[in-house]
Structures are given as C-alpha cells and as structure tokens.
C-alpha cells in the first residue's frame, strides 16, 4: 500500500474507531427518515408542525421561553451577539481567544455585523471570573463555550459559572452559552440542562456533535430575543423553505443519544487514562470533563504519524485520521467519544495502547 | 364543512391542482434518496465528491468557470452584491423595486452588508435599458430578475438583455442574474442557458421552483468571484458540515425536470388563455413568457373567495389555496405550472373554467 495519505487510509480500513458515532454518510439521514411517513408536510419558511413542535420541545428541554432552529451554529451565534449589541447599543462582545467565532468563521461577526471582540483569558486556559472583572472595555455580551473545544474541552467549575452569571447580571452584561457540546458537559457538572441554561440569557446547542445528527442548531432564550433572531435568520439567508432535512435527524438522534452522555464521559476518562499510561503521551485535560480530550505527543509529527499507521495496521483500531503539528517537537489529535467506543473489544483496545506505547518507547 | 380557512381546505381536498409538482412533503426528499447508497460519504464543509461534482456539473451547465452550492438564494445573492461592491469600492447596487432582496429578505443587504439600493423602473414593469442609462447614481452592480416574479413573471426582450449587458460592460457595472426561475424562461427566449448566462458576470439559480427540489441554490461565475463567495458563505453561516440533504434532491429533480420547461411554458399559455376567456378575469402577463403568471380578478377578495371555494368543491380542481388583495375592488393569485398540470383531465379543466366564468358572471 502506498496511498497519498496512509494515516487516513489505515484509519478508514480499521475495524474499530475510537471516536464518534460512525461514518458521516448518507445512511445517517436515511436511518432518521426510515420511520417518517412521506405524507408528513414540509416546514415552510420557519412555519409548520415539523419545525414548531421541535422548537417548542427544545425550548422546554433547555428551560427557555422560546427556541428557533438554525441551519448552523455560526449563524445562530453571530445573530445572538448582534441582538445583544443592538439592544445595549455597544458593538463589542467578549469571548475566549480560541472561540469558534474568532478562528473558524472567517470573521463573519466583524465583517457582517461590525462587532468588535475582546479576547478574555489566554489561549491555554478557560475564562475565569477574574478575567471578566479586570476587563476594562464595555461589552454588550460575553460568550462562554462549554466545553472549550480548542483546548481539549476544558471547563470552568460550576461555581465559577454561577459567579460569572451573577456578576454579568449585576453589570448588565448579557451572557451567551456556546453550547455546541452542551449535553456532553452535564455528567461532569452533575447538573440538569436547565440548571446550566438558567445561568445564561441565550443558549445555542448543536445537533451534530455528541448527538450526531446531520447538521443544524437550536437557539433558545426569551420571547423577544427569539423573535428578533428569526428576523436576522431571514437576513442571513437561513430561513430556508424547508429545514426538515436537518430537523428530523436532529430529533431522531437527540432521542437516541441525549441520554448516553454519561456513558461517553466515562469512556473518555477511561481512554484518556490509557493514553496517559504511554511514554511521551499525555491528554488535555489530563482527566476529561466531557466526552472529548486532546492527545498530545512529545515527538515530531512525522514520527508519530509512522507510529499511528503501524498501530492502525497491526491492531485494526482506528486511533486518528489526522495529526496536528503543535511545534517541531510535538503534535496532537482530538478524541470525541461516541457510540463507536463501546463496540471496541477491550483486549483489542489494550493491545493497541500496548503497541502504541512500545513504538513510542522505541523512538 | 365549516373550517377556519375554507379556500385552503377545499384546495387541499381537491383531486387535481393547477400549479406546482405536488405536495411539499417528506416524500420529495425520500424519493430523491431512494436510489442513493447509504455508504455514500457526506460532503464536509464544502468539500467532498458529492458537492464538488455537482458544483462542477452546474458550472459547466451554466457556462461559467466555477459554481458553489448555497443553502439559499438569499445568501447567494447578498454575497454576490457584496463581492461586486467591495471590488469597485462602491457600496450601492441597483435592482427592480419588487426584487426579492428588496421585499422578502428583511433588508439583509442593508443591515448585514451596508449596501444601498437604487430602485430601477416602476413597480409595474420590467427594467429597460433606458432606466439604466438615466440612472444618475454610481452602482457596483445591477441585478436583473428573470422572470420578474412579483409582476407575474414578465421578461424584457432578449435584445434588451443584450443591450443592457453591453452597456454595463462599457460602464464597468457588474451584471448579476437573479435566475431563481432561470430555466423557466429559456423556451420563451429560445436560447440555451449558456447564451443567457453569458450576458451576466454572476448567476444564481434556485433548485426548488421549476425544478422542485427541497431547497438550495447555485451561484456561478469566474473563479476569483466564486472563491470569495465561499469565504462569505462561511461568514453567513452557510458553509454547513453537510449540504447533501439539499444537493442530492437538487441533482435528482434537475435531471427529472430541467428538460420539461417547454411543456410547463406551453401549459402556462394554455391555462392563461382559459382564464382570460372568463368574465372579470385577466392574467399578467396576458400571454405568459415562462411557466408562471398571475390571475387578476376585478372583484373584491371576499366574493372571489366564495367563487373559488365553489369551483373547487364542485369540480375537484384546486385553483388556488390563497388570494391576495390588490385593492378593495380586485385580488389575485399566482400560477406556476409544473408536473401536476398535465395530469388534469382536460374536460374537468374546461368544466372548472366554465363554472368559474358562470359564477363571475352572476355576481
């Protein structure tokens, strides 16, 4: 075998994969639609039973007055920032330096909404109350991402969240939850989703991370906020004639997986411990606080790549399809525990970790 | 029967409907996916075979260098305007007073992109070359909608299009085609799609009007333009992890219906003539130039509603599910000929027109 990308290729040919729920293929949609009667009417530009019922269900689930379904979180969150900025007439918000809005959205918030951003905390850690207190600038809103994905999915303590929420309320600053992986953090906090959401003025949750749907997001908050968000959704070009191709899978996989977050969390802790037992490997965070973590290698990327290819070929365990260079001497990849993890025979998993450790030792 | 909306109710219960391809229900999606193998991989944030192949196919079809799939035309067209405005550093564009961007998008172009708009021609007719020549303001781009939907789907002559295109090129004004119903106008112009598109710098086409897909749009133009549009698509929140739920139906119904536009156009002319034979009824335009037209009644809405309910109940022909008040003395609805029209037994159609005419006469 001499493919262009042997790491990806050996990953694809592996019998088991550590992360996620399975392949992102058309079957994900087909399975969700299998039991849906063809006679069910499409939603029409944000109206109709299929979208309204799901929005009501999600509003109730999150403990908010109303909710609206969006094709993407990018759209939902920019719009949230805009509404809070317009309300306070301050076109400035604050968030983490590695927020999705700052690094993955081609500066949409700045280019479309003309909103300036204040970066809180440094890149290596989560935002603490002190970062907010010492902020000199006036902001309309602070966005907190739980868990902070780009640093391995770290979390502030729940007490910190409560104190931040209280402080923001006192200061008249709106608090928005980037809950792309909201359900994934509940087992660590040992809180209900409504207890977490109650600390925030507006909440976004994704349907294709831990839940594993096709795409789409929900935005929840008070009635006036949601009504405005629907107008902005039209402005963004997100008020599609039919969103049911995302809503039906969102609902289907929500029902299938929202109760499995504890299992994913336990799997993440178990797998992280196995990685941490290997020479030259550590996870971030050391003990996961959700279903995700990053695996860091204290070796150059090319050497680690050779090792992972070897492990994947020899054991049939797909460890990762990619590696990200951190610097010349280290690299990493991300793990997201989903349905696939529990299917891996434990002896095969231990074997893969053993081969990985041996190879790391023999560099 | 005493439903809340008897016009809608009798329409729904009718055996045949004049307009469209059929119900917008989940079956539209299921039919398109029936022959698609579940193992087919999803597109991933604008990449992957499923999206790239369709984009290449559409670029070639429209005769443009490149194309990009968008979840909505609203998004695709605002972005087109923004790119042309940024390129010329003139944040002003011109279009028809009843353009989709002006009346159906909650002012997204103005609120998100800070672009001013010049309204060309008056509301009752299409834009002519003279409207453009006498425009005093500098604009980066002119948007032409073919056909002009809100006035019954009227069209300028092809010669006018050629002259406008030539004039804009001379003046350094970009010309953009709002081709939501692009294929629908080809039979009237007796031109190929590439002949029409060659007159424009950028072209948008929809997949859920004449083609009858689930949602989605294509934007086509030169490479540099399309590359920029992809960045703006991310900024708008339109670069979804998976767009295949729209792409697969777009391709499926494109193959099924793109060659049927002549049939729809002939049907529209036939049906318009039937309406024009009735007392107090006329169509706009009098002779359709695409698959669409508006039906105008010179009677108050409430009286016409009673008549349409009667026709729908008595003949089983669904004429319209709604009426729009024009003024106290007149009202209208829109007809879009699709697959359903050919299924109507002609004697039943003539019977419906006869009942309609008799009822209009007896007011």
From TrEMBL, chains A, B:
Record InterPro entries: ArAA_b-elim_lyase/Thr_aldolase, PyrdxlP-dep_Trfase, PyrdxlP-dep_Trfase_major, PyrdxlP-dep_Trfase_small
Cofactors demanded by this protein: pyridoxal 5'-phosphate
Domain Aromatic amino acid beta-eliminating lyase/threonine aldolase: 39-282
Gene3D superfamilies attached to this UniProt entry: Aspartate Aminotransferase, domain 1, Type I PLP-dependent aspartate aminotransferase-like (Major domain)
Domain of life: Bacteria
Keywords: Pyridoxal phosphate
Family: Belongs to the threonine aldolase family.
Protein name: Threonine aldolase
């Amino acid at each position: 075998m001499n493919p262009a990308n042997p790491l990806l290729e050996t990953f694809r040919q592996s019998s088991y994969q550590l992360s996620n729920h399975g392949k992102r293929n058309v079957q994900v949609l087909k399975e969700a639609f299998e039991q849906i009667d063809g006679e069910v009417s499409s939603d029409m530009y944000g109206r109709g039973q299929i979208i309204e019922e799901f929005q009501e269900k999600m509003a109730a689930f999150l403990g908010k007055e109303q909710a609206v379904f969006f094709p993407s979180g990018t759209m939902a969150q920019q719009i949230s920032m805009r509404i809070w900025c317009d309300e306070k007439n301050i076109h400035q918000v604050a968030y983490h330096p590695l927020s999705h809005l700052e690094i993955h959205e081609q500066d949409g918030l700045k280019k479309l909404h003309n909103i300036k951003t204040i970066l809180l905390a440094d890149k290596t850690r989560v935002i603490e109350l002190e970062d907010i207190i010492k902020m000199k600038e006036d902001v309309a809103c602070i966005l907190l991402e739980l868990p902070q994905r780009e640093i391995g999915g770290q979390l502030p303590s729940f007490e910190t969240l409560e104190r931040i929420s209280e402080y923001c309320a006192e200061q008249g600053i709106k608090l928005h939850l980037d809950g792309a992986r909201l359900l994934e953090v509940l087992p660590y906090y040992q809180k209900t989703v409504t207890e977490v959401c109650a600390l925030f003025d507006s909440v976004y949750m994704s349907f294709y991370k831990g839940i594993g749907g096709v795409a789409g997001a929900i935005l929840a908050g008070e009635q006036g906020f949601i009504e405005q968000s629907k107008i902005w959704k039209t402005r963004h070009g997100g008020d599609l004639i039919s969103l049911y191709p995302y809503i039906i899978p969102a609902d289907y996989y929500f029902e299938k997986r929202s109760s499995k977050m504890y299992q994913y969390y336990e799997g993440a802790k178990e797998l992280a411990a196995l990685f941490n037992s290997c020479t030259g490997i550590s996870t971030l965070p050391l003990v996961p606080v959700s279903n995700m973590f990053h695996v860091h290698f204290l070796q150059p990327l090319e050497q680690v790549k050779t090792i992972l290819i070897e492990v994947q070929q020899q054991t049939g365990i797909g460890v990762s399809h990619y590696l990200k260079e951190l610097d010349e001497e280290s690299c990493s990849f991300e793990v997201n525990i989903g349905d696939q993890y529990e299917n891996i025979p434990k002896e095969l998993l231990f074997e893969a970790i053993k081969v990985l450790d041996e190879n790391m030792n023999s560099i």
